[in-house]
Amino acid sequence: MILLFGFNRLPWTTFFDEYGTGRADDQEGEDGMAKTWKTSKPSDFQSLFGRLLVALDMIVASPVGLINKIEEAEADKEKDVDYLSSIEVLIIDHADVITMQNWSHAKTVVEQLNRIPSKQHGTDIMRIRPWYLDGQARFYRQTIILGSHVNPDINAVFNKHCLNYKGRVKLLCEHKGVLPKVLLQVRQIYDRIDTESLVDADDARLDYFKNKVYPKIKDSGQGGIMIFISSSFDFVRVRNFLKSEDASMSTKDSDISRARAWFFQGKRKIMLYTERAHFYYRYKIRGIQNLIIYSLPERKEFYPEIVNMLEGSNSMNCTVLFSRFDFLWLERIVGTAPAKRMVTSDKRIFTFC
């Protein structure tokens, strides 16, 4: 049996209702899709959301759909997910996109595969392959993970759950970086946060922001400061810190139209903007005078999109915080060779213009 799961593509009517791309306000083309939507979003956005998946002779499901089935089976003993025990080929499509939703769901589903069934289901035991009865099916499963890039979460599933006895293959590539796609003359200052362990990296980043970055923001009294944060976890921590400081800020928790207007008009000095918000909506934030990238985006194409929002800024400054544990993100943006130098150099500050 083949199991294919990936990004949960929705019917167009549901998609427009859920994510508000403006179909109701725009003129429709012959295909029923709003003309403005087709041309106003970047090409990768159109490619990702602009098609539905059709497949035959296999289980096609989203991670959250399978999680719901697993939870139903745990709550009701009359139900089960024994069909997951016979998966011979697993295809995780758009793994990088699933990380924009909830990767833990995908991880949980993979952990449930190829377990010995809880019921016999009238099966003739003599027809079952021996390695299934011995609980060794996971070593015979072929797993294919597809995505535009990797991150530590995807690597963890690959290392821990891709155990085929024939071995494993991972495709690696040299990244050229996306800095040439920054169309403005922006001074991009990369500030390395030195930390000894991955466990301490998040706390070190927050402490650096509290002690080194925010005091400069507070003392300057400058407005138009946008802080881009890739992780929802980091977003909550930074937001809570700024609230404790009574900072004048807008966040994606606010009504987004009002928040953007207040920021543009100078009624709020700081805007917090997450990668997930940009992934789903691709907002154009106006009024940015100073850009702080608290953590680099996973999707490399987002970097020039965010930096190019400085158009109209008087200062054209962008500060990027990174650590040596951000190498996978860093190499996609500045290039593999420069990234290696930046994480190992005795220098801590690097500038790109």
Automatic annotation (TrEMBL):
- Keyword tags: Nucleus
The family database entries (InterPro entries) matched by this protein are listed as: UTP25 (IPR010678), UTP25_C (IPR053939), UTP25_NTPase-like (IPR053940)
Whether S-adenosyl-L-methionine counts among this entry's keywords is no
User: Where is the secretion signal located?
Assistant: none
From the Swiss-Prot or TrEMBL record, state where the protein is found. Answer: Nucleus, Nucleolus
Instruction: Using the record's annotation, list all stretches that form the UTP25 NTP hydrolase-like domain.
Output: 57-169
Q: Where is the UTP25 C-terminal domain?
A: 180-352
Show the Pfam families listed in the entry: Utp25_C, UTP25_NTPase-like
Name any one GO molecular function: U3 snoRNA binding
Query: Which protein are we looking at?
Result: Nucleolar protein
Q: Which organism is it from?
A: Artemisia annua (Sweet wormwood)
Question: Taxonomic lineage per UniProt?
Answer: Eukaryota, Viridiplantae, Streptophyta, Embryophyta, Tracheophyta
